[in-house]
TrEMBL record:
One of its GO terms (biological process) is fatty acid elongation. The keyword Ligase applies. This is AMP-dependent synthetase and ligase. Residues 21-452 form the AMP-dependent synthetase/ligase domain. Signal peptide: none annotated. One of its GO terms (molecular function) is long-chain fatty acid [acyl-carrier-protein] ligase activity. Transmembrane segments: none annotated. It comes from Rippkaea orientalis (strain PCC 8801 / RF-1). It comes from the Bacteria. Keywords: Ligase.
């Protein structure tokens, strides 16, 4: 199915917005109901504001190919600044205003930016001491705060810039698909951040090809929760807005309420988001009467059997591609027999779950990491359309995605158009046979131009034939679906030489209602261990069912207090051992070396705020390992 509008002939992203204003003028483009005051812009208004921002910058000598640093977070003004700076002819370097001061100053210097756009005075104050030695000639506040008139660098607020722009005329900046559009800096958990150079052509690949995954209609509602400056959310926004959708900004705090309030048709998220939604639903189940809980469990177990039979019958099961015709016939018969009870479960339970998240979802895309199999199964049972995609910042980002017509659970889907995937031996780069696991290489028009001012790093990442080394391990199904098994650098090597991919084990274990988050450790050890953030609410409910009274510490408790609390009592420790053992053994492809022999419980969740997760809610393994190194060492030494 092709896009509503054809953008194949345009050369730069800003060329999209006059077309959307012409075709979707009165439709709401951006909606920020939680700002003070709330902001709502139609496509006609959005284009006018982008143009005014661009003219304002041009009036202040921002020229073609200038670098503009944009340090701000989700809001309509972020989008206006992003596209306004590109429309002026500049390339922007983007990051969250919440990022560490030293990281922002590094990006500001490394990107050669001469203009700085910041969220507010607070962000500017954080950076002020480091700006003097940099070639910054202009500062723009995206807030309406009064700029410092005594500042040595010319500073305007948002409205002052827009007023300037409204009085001028746009000088059309001639850009090609090879023109640099943006620099997105990698997280830098293993060294200094690298500026990923994405061209207009790279990003337009996403605009013109993501309709192979999502087929939006003008006026469809979209919830935006991921950071707008991140490549995943950013490309999704460009695509969805190019098709006339209404995008509403939400947050972790308001997300579940906004699902019911705005009833979205489409949303992109990361596994942690879908896990949080799942856990909220499970919590509601646990709060119901024992009879009702047994009813829910009965239907979920029955529906799981029905879904698996359906997958096998339709050749959509990752583990059953080689099933015989007879096995598929048996699966079809089983699905037919179970279908009436599954439909009854939908009427009694699953339909209410869909209504609880708005009732209108057509597409829920999960990216930025693997989706645990129990989440994939649950969302399929309740008929919430979760599709999984794959990609990296360096690939703009989408290279693969599942679709409604070809949704192989457990995979990341087939390549999107104009994309090639190759699996090679990590040691000698020889191409591996189909089905064999190796290093994932990608080639396509969405692959970055390189790392900014880092030619050696670029040569290591992209070979002379244009193949980009993703650093991920995976394999291809007979139908070219990509199955990611882990990061090459995340692989844990035990002292017996066995290589363990931690992500799949973690995904299996967080299926336990008592495990909220978890990170597997064990490099160079005899066996695996784990750092576990327990789900205290579920633990309390379990204790009541066992007629136990738990003395649980609060989040501010010291390590000594935690060790002497009931978290380390024999019943609780036995519960966690049983949960880990069961979930690991139930995982497809289980091997004895996958067993977790030791673990420690920690009460501080991995989060963005404490620096233990990326902006897309992936655990920063090196950072967590460093923070808990003493605990990890003790975990293995005492056992």
């Amino acid at each position: 199915m092709k896009s509503q509008l054809d953008y194949s002939s345009i050369n730069a992203l800003p060329e999209i917005w006059p077309l959307t204003a012409q075709n979707f003028g009165d439709i709401i483009a951006l909606d920020d109901p939680h700002s003070n005051p709330p902001v709502s812009l139609t496509y006609a208004q959005l284009y006018q504001q982008i143009k005014n921002f661009a003219v304002g910058l041009q009036t202040l000598e921002v020229k073609l190919s200038s670098k503009v640093a944009l340090f701000a977070d989700n809001s309509p003004r972020w989008f206006i600044a992003d596209q306004g700076s590109m429309m002026a002819g500049a390339a922007n370097a983007v990051r969250s205003s919440q990022a560490d001061k030293d990281e922002l100053l590094y990006i500001l210097a490394d990107s050669d930016s001469t203009t700085l756009i910041v969220q507010d005075q607070k962000t500017l104050k954080k950076l002020r001491s480091g700006i003097d030695d940099l070639p910054i000639q202009l500062i723009i506040l995206l807030s309406d705060e009064a700029p410092d008139q005594e500042a040595p660098i010319k500073t305007l607020n948002f409205q002052q810039l827009m007023d300037k722009g409204s009085q001028g005329t746009l000088a059309i900046a001639t850009q090609t698909k090879d023109s640099l559009a943006t620099l997105i800096y990698t997280s830098g958990t293993t060294g200094q951040p690298k500026g990923v150079m994405l061209s207009h052509g790279n990003l337009l690949h996403q605009v013109t090809n993501l309709d192979s995954v999502i087929q939006p209609k003008p006026g469809d509602r979209v919830l935006s929760i991921l950071p707008s400056w991140h490549s995943y959310e950013r490309s999704a926004e460009y695509f969805l807005l190019s098709q006339g959708c209404t995008m509403t900004y939400t947050s972790i705090r308001t997300f579940k309420t906004d699902l019911k309030r705005f009833k979205p048709h489409h949303m992109v998220g990361v596994p942690r988001l879908w896990e949080s939604l799942y856990e909220g639903i499970q919590k509601q189940f646990r709060e119901q009467s024992p009879t009702r809980q047994k009813l829910v469990e009965f239907f979920l177990n029955l529906s799981e059997r029905y879904i698996l039979a359906q997958r096998i019958a339709k050749n959509l099961s990752l583990e059953h591609f080689h099933a015989s015709s007879f096995e598929r016939l048996l699966a079809r018969l089983q699905a037919t027999l179970l279908s009436p009870l599954h439909i009854l479960g939908d009427k009694l339970i699953y339909g209410k779950i869909r209504q609880g998240v708005g009732g209108n979802f057509e597409t829920m895309v999960s990216g930025g990491g693997s989706l645990a199999k129990h989440l994939d199964m649950f969302y399929e049972i309740v008929n919430l359309p979760v599709l999984v995609g794959y990609g990296l910042t360096e690939t703009s980002p989408v290279t693969n995605a599942r679709t409604h017509s070809h949704n192989i659970r457990g995979s990341s889907g087939q390549p999107v158009p104009e994309t090639e995937i190759c699996i090679v031996d990590p040691d000698n780069r020889q191409i591996l046979p189909q089905g064999q696991r190796g290093l994932v290489l990608v080639r396509g028009s969405q692959v970055m131009q390189g790392y900014y001012k880092k030619p050696e790093a670029t040569r290591k990442a992209i070979d002379p034939d244009g193949w980009f080394d993703t650093g991920d391990l995976g394999w291809l199904t007979p139908m070219q679906d990509l199955v990611i098994t882990g990061r090459a650098k995340d692989t844990i090597v035990l002292s017996n030489g066995e290589n363990i991919e931690p992500q799949a084990i973690e995904d299996a274990c967080i299926r336990s209602p008592y495990i909220d988050q978890m990170m597997v450790v064990g490099q160079d050890q005899k066996a695996l261990g784990a750092l576990i953030v327990p789900n205290l609410d579920a633990l309390v409910t379990w204790a009541k069912s066992q007629q136990l009274t738990l003395n649980l510490p609060d989040a501010s408790a010291s390590r000594e207090e935690i060790l002497h609390s009931d978290l380390y009592s024999q019943p609780v420790q036995s519960l966690f051992r049983q949960e880990l053992s069961r979930e690991v053994k139930n995982r497809p492809g289980y091997r004895p070396d996958d067993q977790i022999k030791t673990f420690e419980l920690i009460l501080e969740p991995f989060s963005i705020d404490n620096g233990l997760m990326t902006q897309t809610l992936k655990i920063k393994r090196p950072v967590v390992t460093q923070r808990y190194q003493v605990m990890i060492d003790g975990m293995f030494n005492q056992k």
